[in-house]
Design a protein that fits this description.
Growth Hormone, Chain: A; globular
C-alpha cells in the first residue's frame, strides 16, 4: 500500500518526465538542423548545464540548509526553470549568427533554478520516503516515469516525423513542455512535508561539513561514481553528433532510439532492484559499468538506423541500473545526519565532471575522428567498472572486519 507522499511523488514524476523529455531528446537535432550549431556548440549542450550547477550548488545548499521546510522553495525553483521554455520559443527570431549561442544561454540559465530544485528534491524526497521503502519505491517510480517518457517520445516521433527542419514544430514542443511543467509544480505543492528542525551541530556549520570525507563508504562512493560518470558523460555529445551527422537520423529515428532504450528500461528496473537486494548496489554497479562500456564501441560499428535502434535497446538495460543504483548507493553511503552535505558535495563534483567530460569527448572527436573517440570512451568505461569492483572488495573487507570486532 503506497503512502500519500509516494502517490503524489509518482504523479509529480510523471509530469516532470513529460516536461523534460518533450524538449530534451531533441535539443541536439534542433541545434544542428534549425540553428546550424557547430560540433563545439553541440558539446556545450551537455557541458553548460553542469557548469551552472557547479556554480550554483553551494549557494543552493546554503539556502536549503537554512530552511526547516523546503517544499515551497523547490517548487518555485522548478516553476522558474520551466518558464525558460518560453524563452526557447523566441530563439528562432534572433539573427541567425546568434541563434545557437542564444539557445545555449537559455539552456544555461534554466539550470540556475534547476540546481536549487534538484538538490532540494533529493533531500526532500529522502525525508519523505522511509529507508525500508526506498528501493521498491524508486524502482516503481523510475519504471512508471520511463513508461510515460517512452509514450511521450513515441507520440512526438510519429507526429513530427516530417518536421525535422520545421522551426514551428519545435516551438510547439517547448510550449507543451512549459504547460506540463506547471502540472509538475502543482503536484510538488501537494506533497505533505514534515517540519524537521536541523540538529544544533549542523546549524553551526551551515556551509560545509568536511568530516564527510572521513566516511569510508562515502569517500569510495565519490571516487567510483565520479569515475563512472566521467566515462559515461564523455560520450553524450559524441552520440548526438554521430546519430545526426553521420547516421542522418531524423526526429522519428531519434524518437525510436529513445523509445527502444526506455522500453527495455521499463522491464529491467525490477531486475536491478532484485539483484541489488540480493547482492548489493555496489556489486551490481560493476556489471552496469561493464554493460555501459559496450555502447560506444557498438555504436561505432555501423550507421544503419535499425542496428542503432538495437544498440539503444541493449544500452537501455544498463541505463536503468545506472539510474536506480547510483542514487540508492548515494543515500546508502550518506549518514542521515549529514545527508544534505553528502548530496550537495556529490552534486558539485558531479557537475564539474559533467562539464569537463563532454568537452574532452568533442576534443577527441576533433583530433582523432568519431570512431576513435567512441572506442576510447569504451576503454575508459571499462576502467570505471574496475573502480567499482575495488570499492566492492573494500566494502566486503570492512564488513568482515567490523563483524570480527563486534
Amino acid at each position: 500500500m503506497r503512502s500519500y507522499n509516494e502517490k503524489i511523488s509518482i504523479y509529480n514524476g510523471m509530469a516532470s518526465t513529460i516536461a523534460v523529455s518533450l524538449p530534451n531528446n531533441y535539443y541536439p537535432i534542433f541545434a544542428i538542423s534549425i540553428l546550424g550549431a557547430s560540433n563545439y556548440q553541440v558539446g556545450l549542450i551537455s557541458s553548460l548545464p553542469p557548469l551552472i550547477t557547479l556554480l550554483m550548488t553551494v549557494p543552493a545548499a546554503i539556502l536549503l540548509n537554512r530552511l526547516e521546510q523546503q517544499k515551497k522553495t523547490v517548487a518555485m525553483s522548478i516553476l522558474w526553470a520551466r518558464m525558460m521554455f518560453i524563452l526557447l520559443i523566441g530563439v528562432v527570431f534572433i539573427p541567425p549568427h546568434f541563434q545557437a549561442w542564444a539557445f545555449l544561454l537559455v539552456i544555461a540559465l534554466m539550470n540556475v533554478p534547476g540546481t536549487i530544485s534538484n538538490v532540494g528534491w533529493q533531500t526532500l524526497i529522502s525525508g519523505m520516503i522511509s529507508e525500508e521503502r526506498r528501493g521498491a519505491f524508486f524502482s516503481d517510480r523510475n519504471r512508471l516515469m520511463t513508461v510515460i517518457g517512452m509514450i511521450t517520445t513515441l507520440i512526438i516521433g510519429i507526429v513530427m516525423k516530417k518536421e525535422t527542419e520545421n522551426a514551428a514544430a519545435y516551438q510547439i514542443l517547448f510550449l507543451a513542455a512549459f504547460l506540463f511543467g506547471m502540472v509538475e509544480v502543482y503536484f510538488l505543492f501537494k506533497h505533505k512535508e514534515t517540519v524537521q528542525p536541523r540538529p544544533k551541530s549542523e546549524q553551526k556549520n551551515a556551509t560545509m561539513d568536511w568530516s564527510i570525507f572521513k566516511i569510508h563508504g562515502y569517500k569510495w562512493f565519490l571516487i567510483a561514481a565520479l569515475s563512472f560518470n566521467f566515462t559515461w558523460q564523455m560520450a553524450w555529445g559524441l552520440f548526438n553528433i554521430y546519430n545526426v551527422k553521420y547516421a542522418h537520423a531524423t526526429i522519428l529515428w531519434i524518437s525510436i532510439f529513445s523509445v527502444a532504450n526506455q522500453l527495455v528500461q521499463i522491464f529491467s528496473f525490477p531486475l536491478w532492484k532484485k539483484w541489488a537486494e540480493q547482492k548489493s548496489n555496489t556489486l551490481m554497479l560493476v556489471w552496469v559499468a561493464l554493460g555501459m562500456a559496450t555502447a560506444p564501441f557498438l555504436n561505432a560499428l555501423s550507421t544503419n538506423l535499425y542496428y542503432l535502434t538495437f544498440v539503444s535497446m541493449t544500452s537501455g538495460f544498463f541505463v536503468s541500473g545506472t539510474m536506480l543504483l547510483l542514487f540508492n548507493l548515494l543515500l546508502e553511503q550518506s549518514p542521515k545526519e549529514k545527508r544534505t552535505y553528502c548530496i550537495t558535495t556529490y552534486n558539485i563534483l558531479l557537475s564539474f565532471v559533467a562539464f569537463v567530460a563532454p568537452q574532452i569527448g568533442i576534443w577527441l572527436l576533433e583530433k582523432n575522428g568519431i570512431i576513435t573517440a567512441l572506442n576510447i570512451s569504451t576503454i575508459l568505461r571499462f576502467l570505471s567498472a574496475i573502480v567499482f569492483f575495488i570499492m566492492y572488495i573494500k566494502s566486503v573487507k570492512n564488513r568482515k572486519t567490523s563483524l570480527a570486532k563486534g
